[in-house]
Every structure is written in structure tokens, then in C-alpha cells.
Amino acid sequence: MHRKLAVITGASSGIGEVFARRLAADHDLLLVARRRERLEALAAELAAAGSDVRVLAADLTESRDTDAVAERIAAEPNLALLVNNAGIGGRGLFWEGDLGSAERMHRLHVTATLRLCHAALRNMVPRNAGAIINVSSVAAFVRRVGSSNYGATKTWMAVFTEGLHLDLRSTGSGVSVQALCPGFTYSEFHDRMKVDRRTLAPASFWLTADEVVDESLRGLRAGRLFVIPSRRYRILTAVFTKLPIWARLAFERGPRRPAARRMGASA
Question: How many CB atoms lie within 10 A of CB 120?
Fold first, then answer.
């Protein structure tokens, strides 16, 4: 007899991989990511420990791949959990960056999340059971220079998840949703962006993927809508959401860039 199924996107590394390892003990798994070889290696490891693990290689910035994952989710009779974890980052002033990269981020964080949640809820709500974790970010509450697109998409994920929660509660549904909002987390995420972590935040503000996932699963069991791992980040977001706009913006802006650089002029 099959166990409950958890579907995890972005499962080949980082937070997604840790979710897979934590959930393998009492769930069958469907792991989704672009890198098939990484998925298959993880699946083989978890299967050796007794889990039923399947993989689906997909690039969720592509509509065809997103449709395939959504169809798979909609058809799974034992679907119990969807973790929308796949994500990409980027830094730099919006108009100086590549528009195609910005659009890919929106397709991944917004469109794919929208489609997969719709498929999962159409599966879960009639059965009155299941849960969705949407991996947003502290960036949904605190913005920073050079991350306008990232902050916007992660804010959308948090607001969308809250809206789903209201819809579900209005009908008395047993399905639950969570917006997981981690701060800076050690993973391949920042390696792919080729940034020096020391320039982003002090070491005390960096979390491990294990800490993030463990806090998320504790929050899921407790029925918490918003999960912000680490007391530091909970205090930060609590304070920032209550500041007057002028004070919040003054902090978020940070030091000004030289005028010549801001205008794109060469030195």
C-alpha cells in the first residue's frame, strides 16, 4: 500500500533536498528539478533506506514542463503535501539587468506556484486533506537595493499563500497552507549568483537548510500560516512591518551609489 505522497520542487539541492530527506521516513516522494542526475542520485540514496521515490526532471520556467508537473500532481491519489521550493535569485539595478532573466524569475516564483497550487488544491480539497508549503522569503517583508524583482515575486508568494489560507478557512477545509519565509540560508542558491556571502549579512544571520526545514515542518504540524525561521529574523520582520514607510525606506536604501555609476557612465 502506498504511503502519503509529498511533491517537492527544487529538490536537487539545498532546502528542497533537506525536505526530501526529512519527509522520506513517512512519505513517498516525487522529486522535481532541472538536474535529472542529481535527482536520481538522491532518489537512489533514499530508496536504499526504504523510501518509494520517483523523479520528474522539469524546468518550471518553461510552460510545457510546468503543465507536465501540474498534470502529475492533479492525478496523484495519495497527494498529501506540495512544497513549492524551486527558486532563482538575481542582483543588480532592475534596468541594468537582463529582462529575460527577470521574466524567468516571474515564471518560476509566480506562474509555476500558481499552476501547481491550483492543481494540488483541486486534488486535495475534495478529499479534505493535504497541505502546501510555498517557500517565500524574508524579502517579502524587508526589501534591499538590487533585489526589486526578487522581493516582488517573494512578496507575491506570501500574499498569495495568505489568500489561499483565507479561502480554505472560509469553507472549513481541512487543507492547510504555509508561507515559509527564511532569511539568508547556506545553499547553492548564492553560489549560482556568484556573490560573496560576507557582503550580504553577518555570519550570525545565516541559517542552514536543516534549520529552515525543521522549523517549517514544526510550523506545519502546529498549523502556522507564516513560518520565519530564526528569532533574529522574526524580530526583524516584526519591527520592519510596523515602521513608518520613511524609516523603513531609509534603512532599505543603504548607502547611495556614486552618481556616475547610477547613470551607467564610465569612470
Answer: 25
**pLDDT tens, position by position, 179-201:** 999 988 876 555 555 555 555 55
Task: Check: pTM over 0.85? Answer yes or no.
Answer: yes
Residue closest to 4 by CA, chosen among 31, 24, 18, 19: 24
Nearest CA to 22 among 179, 213, 181, 189?
213
Q: Which of 19, 141, 150, 189 is catalytic?
A: 150
Nearest to 154, CA basis, from 209, 110, 208, 201: 110
In the residue annotation, 233 being an active-site residue is answered as: no
What Rg do the C-alpha atoms of the chain give, in angstroms?
Answer: 19
Low-confidence ranges of the chain (pLDDT < 50): 259-267
Query: Residues near 183 by Cβ (< 8 Å), separated by ≥ 6?
Result: 137, 138, 201, 205, 206, 207, 228, 229, 230, 232, 233, 236
Q: What is the pLDDT of residue 189?
A: 58
Would you give the DSSP letter of residue 247?
A: H
What region does 264 belong to: left with phi over 0, alpha with psi -120 to 50, or beta?
left
Residue 265: how many other CB atoms lie within 10 Å? 9
C-alpha 201/C-alpha 207 separation (Å) is 11
Reported as a single tens digit per residue, the pLDDT across 15-36 is 999 999 999 999 999 999 999 9
